[in-house]
Amino acid sequence: MSAYVSGVGTSFFGKQPNTSPAELAWAAIGEAFADAGTDDPAGGHPIEAVYVGSVFGEPGVAMRALQGYALTGVPIVTVENACASGTSALNEAVRAIEAGRYERVLVLGLEQMSTLFKGPIIPQQTDTEGRTGLAMPSLYAMEASRWLHEGRVTLEQLAAVSVKNHRHAVHNPRAQYSGEYTLEQVLESPMISDPLTLLQCSPISDGAAAAVVSATASSERDVRVLGVAQQAGGPWDHRTTDVWGYRLIRDTAVAAFEAAGLAPADVDVAEVHDAFTIGELTTTEALGLAPEGQAGEYAATGVTALGGRLPVNPSGGLLSRGHPLGATGVAQVAEIVTQVRGEAGDRQVPDARIGLVETMGGGVAGVDGNACVVALFGNSEVEGD
Amino acid sequence: MSAYVSGVGTSFFGKQPNTSPAELAWAAIGEAFADAGTDDPAGGHPIEAVYVGSVFGEPGVAMRALQGYALTGVPIVTVENACASGTSALNEAVRAIEAGRYERVLVLGLEQMSTLFKGPIIPQQTDTEGRTGLAMPSLYAMEASRWLHEGRVTLEQLAAVSVKNHRHAVHNPRAQYSGEYTLEQVLESPMISDPLTLLQCSPISDGAAAAVVSATASSERDVRVLGVAQQAGGPWDHRTTDVWGYRLIRDTAVAAFEAAGLAPADVDVAEVHDAFTIGELTTTEALGLAPEGQAGEYAATGVTALGGRLPVNPSGGLLSRGHPLGATGVAQVAEIVTQVRGEAGDRQVPDARIGLVETMGGGVAGVDGNACVVALFGNSEVEGD
After folding, report:
1. Nearest to B235 among A72, A91, A234 (CB)
2. From A40, A106, A260, B193, which residue has the greatest number of CB atoms within 10 Å?
3. pTM reported for the whole predicted model
4. Complex ipTM, two decimals?
5. Whether B62 and A80 lie within 8 Å, measured CB to CB
């Protein structure tokens, strides 16, 4: 059986410490229900289960968010899978729909971070990374340093990702940050973890995103899930030039493309995990969207910019839209669904038919990433069952 | 398709602040693998996915626990559903097996609480309960007060649950507490929240439990999942005599019995959510295991004791075995699987063929329980597909 996304919604993204997590969720759920024509959850297409992605939410965060929509008499499953929590929830929801367990479910991604973090997220003190003081920016900085050393990327190419994604976000009214920056401004912004400067790091964010997933398409606007795969990483072999997470993303992508019967060349638009600029570049290559060693050039020459051949992160990505961990994956889904529907306004990728979402959660326990999810979505022009 | 539990394991339960959560998990996983004949996860029956229940675990707690068993290259889904987290993870695992997604998966329940809590668990300050100072013992005390007022239970019957479950735990070497108490000792132990005394409240616990769930039975010892249901509560109607959670448990049980094609009279042994003595009594009635108003008498007269017609909580239950939130549901499953296999030693329920597990998570947001899971298990003598 197939699964379709029939409605998507998001809150504003940004630091909103005085807005409760439930209020963030309500904004996203309300928009998703209206979008799916499911304003009344007790109406013709009731929600039969809810899958929630949240990392730092207090126990019961899902129930608090859902009772405002009377979404309480159904199975509710809250999933924690680091930065991939939202898309892990999506994966479980899609599999449940495909298995015929439900006709219609809600996926919710939710995170309030501004009340918890005043600086970077630091792995647990029991982790190798935490013990050695490696906060998340440092882990990505090691990736960047390795690729710089190998000649696989330049400082200017790294900065170009930030320029591009901040420019994309100018057309996204829900984005946390946006703006027209020069390469110099990016490179001269405060150094966070060499070589990554402030404008190359995703911010601390609060936000929510929601998607209604259905077993049947009820309109041309419903977007089919062409394939989805999830994996956790194995031990990371530091001796290879496959930087942290690279192999995990590659393997997960292979599984997702195989499930969809597609190849990277079929992708028209992608939302990928640019928690830091280097992340977008390693990911673009690991996904097969750019040949080895060319992702940096793609960013610098506009191939992956709006107007280019394969726009990556038209929403502004994690770097600019923001990165509320549990919400991020579902926000990526909302963007890709909006793109392949042709409803993305000033940031629309022309003729986008097939879109890709990739989320990568990691940073603990010395493994090659905590979890990676890759999902492919197609509009009604895409042939399928 | 059916799902079978082919192996179970637990750690010791108790306050173990100097044992890491990963070490607790390893004890449970190792025992479950050995029990399932799956010592080598890369062997003949590799684990294809892991579902983890945890409430208070730090982000990434699953990955930290699993890498010690090289269980890292597969989908890992961590589920938070209050006290029902472990059985919610089981439900998702069973459904994934039934849908044909996997041949063999691991369910892990894990919680370390002694490092976090020095007193009772208090709902969030944003909840009605938290705002009014209602900690978990108080919520259950309100249930007990209502039933005492209605004449549906007596103080001595409440205390009898504690006497019974502590006595059961004498035969469970993994239990946190056990002992031979008199009704008077229970009633005269320190008052926690009137009418619930110390010996009527489950303790703060650390522990883990694991279960290997398979699509096919490979031995007579494999225990079939006859039916499982999960629900979240709707708004709790305080005006009825259906105390908090009662209706949710009843509705979930109806769904589980229907899925299994069974009735309460078919149950030979049960592990239910006795976080407080009143909890076992309301639950026993809500499940249909005792007629309305008779659960107290069942406990007082030995019907639900080892040696009685329908032993409830032969492991000692949450009251005595302990209650590490995310682990509890999986520990209940381990007990019931051991019972219907006839391998429970001194606490064996004679001729147990069909067992029931019930977990109830609640305490937030003024609803009739956060989540309830009811599951039914049968040994190879039980007919089925």
Report:
1. A72
2. A106
3. 0.93
4. 0.89
5. yes
